[in-house]
Design goal:
L-citrulline binds at residues 91, 96, 127, 131, 182, 191, 267, 279. The protein has 406 residues and is an alpha/beta fold. It is built from 12 helices and 14 strands. A 5-stranded parallel beta sheet has the order 3-2-1-4-5, with helices on both faces. The protein has a 5-stranded antiparallel beta sheet with strand order 10-9-8-13-14. A 4-stranded antiparallel beta sheet has the order 6-7-12-11, with no helix packed on it. It is elongated.
């Protein structure tokens, strides 16, 4: 726990919502500290100016509201998708990959403003506290981190509302009761957890889904698109070049309209418990299928299989908060090297929750018509060679079988 007397100025990750507004006031009253607020525009789809006004009303003089959407996609999301990273087979790591960027900016702002500490609103039961703090310490080993949910005495929503009312913090009527579930959102995904979603055997109510229509309600006619790639990253849709965040936003719209990207997952948190979450990653789901498709014709078998072996470890590092670790950077270097010739186009059909590959083409393709044809290959491949290949690979199996017969 950070000693109160050691902290004079704190940079707070601030959303403008009830919890972080209470944290802001709590830091002012309990720590007697000056608070700097940082609000990141990660493409969460919310108006951020109200956060500025709330911070001003609470006496904050240094307010940072940064549009980091392009950096988020370019330096975090796209490198992760080069690896085809999924945690526990299905989760596209939408929350996990945003935390190191937020931590990076918190530390940078602390250095710019001369702050002693940073603070976040993650609870003591979740993964985010780990992600925020591991990232912060990797970037500044001497930074102080304040995690109010691990310190204060509040036990319930009622306690928070009482504190807010005593300190003249505006509480909207819909915040006075328990929220039916909690939501975290950014340009890559939305995540819903808790309350009505805690029983993993009960289907989520329809109102939980915010980023996609139901596959049943999606259009009866398929949408066909072509995604262009260069060095493993998507660069265009239907021939139109786009910036990283613009491209992901466009894929989100296409995925939303076609009921793509819903996931109901029971996952293993880093802190040791299982949790159930409802995730919506429409654009990311499309992108993953497309990237694997372009790799299928441009990536050598050995490199591709090695990537698939490394991927679970890479995904786990991101999930657990080790984005700035040397092992993640080592894996990233290998992954990026593999993407030098991953370029071309992938044509996809989007239909009622499905992403269907219809075609892929590349000037760097390793696919050879001459080798795979059932027609005359003009000597490109001598089928007789396969006999020796099989005999050599069968040698140990035949040796084992003879021993077993004896």
């Amino acid at each position: 726990m950070v000693q109160h007397r050691d902290v004079k100025k704190v940079v707070l990750a601030y959303s403008g919502g009830l919890d972080t507004s209470i944290i802001l006031k709590w830091l002012q009253t309990e720590y007697g500290a000056e608070v700097v607020t940082f609000t990141a525009d990660l493409g969460q789809g919310e108006e951020l100016e109200p956060a500025r006004k709330k911070a001003e009303m609470m006496g904050v003089k240094e307010i940072y509201i940064d549009d980091v959407r392009e950096e988020f996609c370019r330096d975090f999301v796209f490198p992760m998708f080069r690896a085809n990273a999924v945690y526990e087979g299905t989760y596209l790591l939408g929350t996990s990959i945003a935390r190191p960027l937020i931590s990076k900016r918190l530390v940078e702002i602390a250095h710019e403003t001369g702050a002693d500490a940073i603070a976040h609103g993650a609870t003591g039961k979740g993964n985010d506290q780990v992600r925020f703090e591991l990232s912060a310490y990797a970037l500044d080993p001497d930074i102080k981190v304040i995690a109010p949910w691990r310190e204060w005495e509040f036990k319930s929503r009622t306690d928070l509302v009482d504190f807010a009312e005593k300190n003249q913090i505006l509480v909207s009527k819909d915040k006075r009761g328990e929220a039916p579930f909690s939501v975290d959102a950014n340009l890559l995904h939305s995540s819903s957890e808790g309350k009505v979603l805690e029983d993993p055997n009960v289907a989520p109510p329809p109102y939980v889904f915010q980023r996609s229509v139901s596959p049943e309600d999606a259009p009866d006619k398929a949408t066909t698109i072509t995604i262009g790639f260069a060095k493993g990253d998507p660069v265009s849709i239907d021939g139109k070049s786009m910036k990283p965040h613009e491209l992901l936003a466009a894929l989100n719209d296409l995925g939303r309209d076609n009921g793509i990207g819903r996931l109901d997952l029971v996952e293993n948190r880093f802190v040791g418990m299982k949790s159930r979450g409802i995730y919506e990653t429409p654009g990311g789901t499309i992108l993953l299928v497309a990237h694997r498709a372009i790799e299928s014709i441009t990536l050598d078998r050995g490199a591709g299989h090695l990537k698939d072996e490394l991927m679970p470890r890479y995904a786990e590092l991101i999930y657990n908060g080790f984005w700035f670790s040397p092992e993640r950077e080592m894996l990233q270097a290998a992954i990026d090297h593999s993407q030098q010739h991953v370029e071309g186009t992938v044509t996809l059909k989007l239909y009622k929750g499905n992403v269907i590959v219809e075609g892929r083409a590349s000037p760097k393709s390793l696919y050879s018509d001459e080798l795979v044809t059932f027609e005359d290959d003009h000597g490109a491949y001598d089928q007789k060679d396969a006999a020796g290949f099989i005999r050599l690979n069968a040698l140990r199996l035949r040796t084992l079988a003879k021993r077993d017969v004896r």
